[in-house]
Amino acid sequence: MRKKFRTESAVIPTDPHRPSLRPSDARRAVRGALARQAPPCAATALDDALLVTSELTTNAIVHGGGITGFDVDVEGCALRVSVSDRSDALPVTERIPGEADDDRPGGRGWPIVCRLARDVEVAGLPRGGKRITAVLSLS
Q1: Which distant-in-sequence residues (6+ apart) come within 8 Å of 127 by Cβ?
Q2: How far apart are CA 129 and CA 68, in angstroms?
Q3: According to the model, what pLDDT value does residue 37 have?
């Protein structure tokens, strides 16, 4: 059985009248999707799902120019979280000493996502930007 929960919100920072998706909104959507799951998922699976959701949405805001799409799918014993942003740049898996970005704070979120998800996909979007999809086990 597949259940799909979809929330899409174009984030345009210069337009104060347009609502934007925040990491807390995304976590609420994931929590709601998993609350409707029968049987309920393990507490550690919920914690992992919320952490991955926070990291993906925060990275889209901080490094990707804003969230342009968000999807949550529950399929059997798996949760699929997809976050789209405006940037074509691929996530950085590790810092290389001496590079220009070496002094920039952060850099820990993407390895966390890769470690907790059983599958991660980064796909370019036809009109620019990218979609990152993480699949997590709920068992």
Answers
A1: none
A2: 9
A3: 78
Structure tokens belonging to residue 30: 């994931």
Q: What is the DSSP string of 23-40?
A: HHHHHHHHHHHHHT-SSP
CA-to-CA separations, 9 to 13, 85, 107, in angstroms, rounded: 12, 10, 25
Nearest alpha carbon to residue 5 among 28, 39, 22? 28
The string of pLDDT tens digits covering residues 4-17 is 444 433 333 334 44
Residue 115 predicted with pLDDT over 70 = yes
68, pLDDT greater than 90: yes
Q: Which long-range contacts (CB under 8 A, 24 or more apart) does 110-113 make?
A: 110/55, 110/59, 112/51, 112/52, 112/55, 113/52, 113/55, 113/56
